[in-house]
Write a structure and sequence with these properties.
256 residues, Rossmann fold
């Protein structure tokens, strides 16, 4: 763990996002002036009902979505990098090297197997070819992806296999900042245990994690702090017990 646990790696201020549904001429607000700080080495969980804005928040941070207002600042030593104004090429380099995003669903190029996919992620993290191949194999083994599947086209894998390959690519030679969007939702108990062991190990590698989970048991196990989102806004934050103890009905219903 880091010797400076309160040093921020990510600061989000006043983030707002809405979507226009042109077919029915309606605007839907997804984020309402969201602010948060993620510290180095911290595992921060986002909780709340479906539609609360959790995935939209991660996508704005990763800049899959451009926010309507607000800032997303990545702290890099003495530098502060506003991701909302960064050029596309610079953003692409940061995504490969400094932070990763693991969605619920694997998006793999055609005719590409797990080993090649995870090796490519390791290369983007700065490893040379030999080290990237070794790291990819280690990552796939840690998540229980059988070697007989390593050269199989990812499109024919099961949902659980694809999710584990996706997590392997996100955590191989892990970046210093990792966004996780329900990374174990499709896994059976045995493979979920393997995945959670990999996720838990990130805290020992000084990786800062901002993650969405829909399982209170997982949040209790891996998260150092939790934010509750309702209707596009953060309505509570603290330890899991603090947030639960505050009597927030939405969290109690979703994670009962």
């Amino acid at each position: 763990m880091t010797d400076e646990p309160t040093r921020p790696i990510l600061t989000v201020r006043g983030l707002s996002k809405s979507f226009t549904l042109h077919a029915i001429d309606r605007s839907v607000v997804s984020l309402r002036s969201v602010s948060l700080t993620l510290n180095r080495g911290e595992h921060l969980a986002l909780a709340g009902a479906s539609g609360a804005g959790k995935s939209s928040l991660l996508r704005c941070i990763h800049r899959n979505y451009l926010p309507d207002a607000g800032s997303v600042v990545l702290h890099d030593g003495d530098r502060e990098i506003d991701l909302t104004t960064l050029g596309d090429r610079s953003m692409a380099r940061l995504r490969g090297r400094d932070f990763g995003y693991v969605s619920q669903f694997l998006k793999a190029p055609p005719r590409q197997g797990p080993l090649r996919l995870v090796t490519a992620a390791a290369l983007r993290r700065g490893l040379d070819a030999a080290a990237a191949g070794d790291a990819a194999a280690e990552s796939l083994r840690a998540l229980g992806v059988e070697e007989r599947l390593w050269e199989v086209d990812c499109s024919v894998l099961s949902g659980g296999e694809r999710q584990r390959v996706n997590l392997a690519a996100g955590t191989v030679s892990p970046p210093r900042l990792l966004l996780l969007d329900e990374p174990v939702s499709a896994l059976d108990p045995a493979n979920r245990a393997l995945a959670l062991a990999v996720i838990e190990d990130l805290r020992h590698r000084d990786v800062s994690v901002l993650a969405i989970y829909h399982d209170m048991g997982i949040i209790r196990r891996v998260a150092s702090r939790v934010l509750l989102m309702e209707d596009g806004a953060i309505t509570a934050e603290g330890t899991v017990d603090e947030v639960l103890g505050a009597g927030h009905r939405a969290l109690g219903e979703v994670y009962a």
